[in-house]
Amino acid sequence: MTTAAPRLIDYPSIQWNADWCKRCYICVEACPRQALELKDDAIIEIEGRCDRTGLCQRLCPDMAIEVRVPRSKGGSR
């Protein structure tokens, strides 16, 4: 038996798992910068608004969204 890999959508500041998300809208409402929107059955990051507070990730009941840590300018983490 094989299992399909989850559909992960990569944005500049977040990674969204389309298969785990139940489109509850919690992440969109939680974002203090209004960096997310639900459009055409998908969570969309509005470029340039995310400040990586992580509220969307912490409040998602499905663990379907992950905030990416920005890389340092020196190339190491």
Give an account of the 3D structure.
The termini are far apart. The chain has a 3-stranded antiparallel sheet with strand order 1-2-5, with no helix packed on it. With 77 residues, it is α+β, with helices and mostly antiparallel strands. It has one domain (8-67): Alpha-Beta Plaits (2-Layer Sandwich). It has 2 helices and 5 strands; from the N terminus they run E-E-H-E-E-H-E.
Summarize the structure.
Helices cover 13% and strands 23% of the residues. It has two helices and five strands, in the order ββαββαβ. The longest helix is centred in the middle third of the chain and has 5 residues, at 26-30.
**Category by helix and strand content:** alpha+beta
Average of per-residue pLDDT values:
90
> What's the CATH C level?
Alpha Beta
**What is the N-to-C order of secondary-structure elements (H for helix, E for strand)?**
EEHEEHE
The radius of gyration computed from the alpha-carbon positions, rounded to a whole number of angstroms, is: 13 Å
Strand tally is: 5
Write the layout of secondary structure elements.
Blueprint (H helix, E strand, L loop, with lengths): L7 E3 L3 E4 L8 H5 L5 E4 L2 E4 L9 H5 L5 E3 L10
Antiparallel strand pairs: 1-2, 2-5, 3-4
Keywords:
alpha+beta, Alpha-Beta Plaits, three-stranded antiparallel sheet
